[in-house]
Amino acid sequence: MSSDDEQALAKLVSSDVKIPAQPQVLIELRKRLTADDYDAREISKIIAKDPGLVAMLFKTVRSPVFGCGKSSDNLDQVLMIIGVKQTFNLVQAMALASSVSDKARKALDTFWTRSQDIGQLCAIIAADRVRTTKVLSDQAYMAGIFHQCGVPVLMQRFPEYCASLQSGNASDWPDLTQEDAKFDVDHTMAGYMVARHWSLPDFVCTAIRHHREIPQDDLGPAGTLIFNLQLGIHYYHRNNELPN
């Protein structure tokens, strides 16, 4: 960890920022997958314990990016179409939205709608370039969902952080650099800590930490994912006629 990262981490710790705990469903799923002792039916039974995640999963996999144009009527079919591990990555990405307190529901709805839109764009970009970039759609979607996950974490700690999101207007997106300076925190470090705590792949964690930067060094898959994120954000702004 660089000295800048160490300083950012120290500030987060001193600010008493709380990292959200993983849902029990994710803990159970990771335990089964790590042990490599499972079948698709067992995995679908675990996911089914959280109806909210099931609803979000079906909504996402119905898109051509993940469903390959095929319809899914139950979790077993989802697992057959996109695979157990890709399903886990999607569930992991979606679970974060339901893990954060709803003290500021309008602001959080605005935030998650934006994150999901960017995640979808990142997945489309990855699907189009998977042969050359080797980044899978579910990995890109995960990065898109998590890339600014430090924001809702900081909103819980500092009620005035990104207060403009309370308007519910997605075009009224705050300047996060200014917000970080005002509260003496770093939302990318907060997001990185969430990603590490939730055991996301190392290259996804690195991309979340540095998604606002142009990589100067060869970061391997993380560098590719950073460019994917930046392109997804660019298209989101262009599609919504927002300044970049």
Briefly, what is this?
The chain has 244 residues and is mainly α. Helix content is 66%, strand content 0%.
Write structural notes for this entry.
The chain has helices at residues 3-14, 24-35, 40-47, 51-61, 64-67, 75-82, 84-95, 105-133, 137-146, 150-157, 176-183, 187-197, 202-209, 221-239. Helix content is 66%, strand content 0%. The chain has 14 helices and no strands. The chain is globular and about 50 Å long. With 244 residues, it is mostly helical. Helix 2 packs antiparallel against helix 7 (84-95), helix 8 (105-133) crosses helix 14 and helix 10 (150-157) packs across helix 12 (187-197).
How is this fold's topology laid out?
Blueprint: H1 3-14, H2 24-35, H3 40-47, H4 51-61, H5 64-67, H6 75-82, H7 84-95, H8 105-133, H9 137-146, H10 150-157, H11 176-183, H12 187-197, H13 202-209, H14 221-239
Helix pairs in contact: 2-7, 3-6, 4-7, 6-7, 7-9, 8-9, 8-14, 9-13, 10-12, 12-13, 13-14
- Give me the Rg, rounded: 18 Å
Count of beta strands: 0
Could you spell the SSE succession in H and E letters?
A: HHHHHHHHHHHHHH
Segments where pLDDT lies below 50 for 5+ residues? none
Proportion of residues in helical segments: 55-70%
